[in-house]
Every structure is written in C-alpha cells, then in structure tokens.
Amino acid sequence: MKLIKTTEAAGHVLCHDITQIIPGVKKGPVFKKGHIITEEDIPVLLSVGKENLYIWEKQEGMLHEDEAAMILKDICMKDSRTMHATDPSEGKVTIFADTAGVLKINRDRLDAVNAMGEMMIATIHGNFPVKSGDKIAGTRIIPLVIEEEKMMAAKEAAGDEPLISILPFRPVKAGIITTGSEVASGRIKDAFGPVLTEKLVEYDVEIMGQRILPDDCTGITSAINEFAAKGADMVLVSGGMSVDPDDRTPKAIKDTGADIVTYGAPVLPGAMFMLAYLHYDGKEIPVMGLPGCVMYARRTVFDLVLPRLLAGEHLTRDDISTYGEGGLCLGCKTCHFPNCGFGK
Fold first, then answer.
1. For residue 340, is pLDDT > 80?
2. For the chain, which domains are there?
C-alpha cells in the first residue's frame, strides 16, 4: 500500500473503498476496491475530500481489510443454513439470521478475539429469540491492511466452533394446568390461560389443552402425568407457587418424580419460578411452575426461559442463576422487550 496525491492517481488501483455521503440521499462507496482510477475520476475523488489516496501494493504477509473481514466472518459463522453474511465492504461484514430460533454466543472466545485489537465483532445479546431477517452481528477490520499472522492468531483464539449459532425452534406440544380453588370453583375468571396461550402461539406451539384444578397435590400431579402420557413436550403449571399453606404446585411437581432444577430465580417479576424435568417414555419433558406475576406482568422470567426450552436447550441451575444481572424488569410504560436490558 502506497500513499500518493489524488491528482497523480490516474492509472493506479484503489486498495480500499471510497465512501460518498450525501445527507438524506446516500452513504456508500462511490469507488470500490480494485477500481482503476481514470482522469475523469479525480474531480469526484477530490469532491469527497480525498486529497490523497492509498494505492494497492501487494505485500507478502499483509491482508487487505476485506480479505481479513472474510476471516472474521468465518470465525463467527460456519452454518449457512441458519444465517448469511453480506459481501465485505470497507472491511465490514454484516450477518443476518435465516431461521427463527435462539441466538447462542460463545462470550469467552468472542472477548478473546476482540481483545486482540485492530479487529472487532459486535453482536446482539445471546440467549434471546431471533427471527429470519434479524441482524445479529457485524464485524470490521480497523486498519486498511492487517498482518495475516494476526488474523491466524484470531482464528486460533476463536477455536474450531463458530462464535455465534442459532438453535432453531422445534415443533412443541404443550399442556397447560391452571391451579387455584378460587378459579376451579368459578369464583374468579381464569386469567392465566389467555396469557399463556398468547405467548405460546407466538412461537407456533401446539396447545394440547388446559386443565383448571383446585389446590390439590394429587390432582395436579395426575394432570401433569396425563399430559406426559398424551405426548406433551412441555407442561406449564400456573398458580399456587408461593409459600401460602394452600399453594400446592411445587409439591405436586416434585411428586411426579421430576428432577427439580430450581425453585426460585433471580428475576423480578418471577422469583417464585420452578423448573423441573420429567422423564417419561424416553423423553425429557420440561415442567414449569409459573408464579402469579405471569398473568399480569408484561414480561417475566417465563419470557426469558421459554424460547430456550423451545429450542431444545437443557437448562441448569447455573443457567438460571446467571439471570441475576439484568433480571430486574423496570416495567416501562412502553415495553420494548427484547430490545431492552431485561434478562441480559
């Protein structure tokens, strides 16, 4: 790469894109890398403020920004079935989702690459749902040229697996059990069913049905097992999750023999959340105990956990405990979830 005056550039090859910005009209390259400059181009280059230009002089061991950007793209993604990337331009590549699912990011290795300097990878937050067409990541090489050795070191730091991936949503059948003697007796109207139905339909979950039961451990346990026997992939048990004497849901879930992951989560709303896994006929069925906040708060722990379970993740106690930072919903008047800090 050699720096020369623009007025002397005719016949030379540009080694980088030249961006033109016309406010409200366009921002983009007026000349692309590899363009052979003509005499007619010189006034245009001067008009965009280019008094000097870098012309390409290929040097052993050095990569142009666009060549290096493709290495960053490969570091980020390897599965072209779930995402795609733009062609490099000015050292930048943008990556978009091609399927609906949960975005997964290897944060440690992402940090390792970004710590190297002269290159960057920026993503949206992981463990959140994305849909086809969503922008999920962008990369850029900072200088116009970069040492090939440094890019190889970035590849080594990133490892063999891609830094970002998408776990596609699976077809899921769910059973809903609403508990509460006041609801089962008809004294108050069920509010859980409509809320849960709306949230499940958003992810194309097949709802097998809803049982409304009094606060009786035996009946709730039996209903969970019945849904499992009918082929449910997930069972939601709403209500009865506090420590009041009449709240029996946690014990009813335990009585199924399910493995309890957690009773309690560092999330508000949703601290009294329970997650368990019921093993039935070779299947591992998530069973969630949902506290009362799910029926009246716009977003709760349920919105953080549900997409990951629908994508087939097996969540552990450690997974739930990481929600503490960002686990406080501010209850904004206009909800922007998931484009906010809740759960991140």
1. yes
2. 2-55 (3.90.105.10), 62-167 (3.90.1170.30), 173-324 (3.40.980.10)
